[in-house]
Write a structure and sequence with these properties.
165 residues, RRM domain-containing protein, four-stranded antiparallel beta sheet, extended, ABT1/Esf2, Alpha-Beta Plaits, 5 helices, 15% strand, nucleus, RNA binding
């Protein structure tokens, strides 16, 4: 028979893996390094996303080009367009209309955008995206925060519009 715990103040042992360590406050040198790293990031705009391409597939295509892909946001297609496609017997998969990609180095992001724009997505003819072209543009003086502000502003105006009706 197993002994039962009758103590109500029992707590699990303070194991190093279970306890979250507090981060020390950011120093001036750390802050300067963080700001410099943020200034060096570059954002590219993808004007067209091929049908049924997912963010992971896009990340694998762009990750081998010399710099890290930090963040990807793909704008889902309009609900009316999707409803029309599904109603007419089309595919029910999620599609995206446009997207933004953040790279770790803005110089390389500019070079990636200039070299990939209007070229074939893959050289492999068996690929699903073999006949699609890149439509990519580097956005000067555009940071990821601008994108999140834009999305928040659109959501706020949509919410205000719904509330006024």
């Amino acid at each position: 028979r197993r002994p039962t715990l009758r103590c109500s103040s029992w707590s699990p042992p303070a194991d190093a893996a279970m306890v979250k360590a507090k981060k020390p406050p950011l120093t001036e040198e750390g802050l300067a390094a963080f700001v410099e790293k943020e200034k060096n990031k570059g954002v590219c705009f993808l004007g067209r996303i091929p049908p049924y391409m997912k963010p992971n597939a896009l990340r694998t295509m762009l990750s081998g080009l010399g710099t890290d892909v930090l963040r990807i946001y793909l704008q889902p297609e309009d609900t009316a367009v999707r409803a029309r496609r599904v109603k007419s017997g089309g595919n029910k998969k999620k599609c995206f209309s446009e997207g933004w990609v953040e790279f770790a180095d803005k110089r390389r992001a500019k070079r990636i955008a200039s070299t990939l724009n209007n070229t074939a997505m893959t050289n492999n003819q068996r690929s699903f995206y073999a006949h699609d072209l890149w439509n990519i543009k580097y956005l000067h003086k555009f940071k990821w925060d601008n994108l999140t502000e834009k999305m928040a502003n659109e959501a706020r105006t949509r919410h205000d519009k719904m509330r006024s009706e």
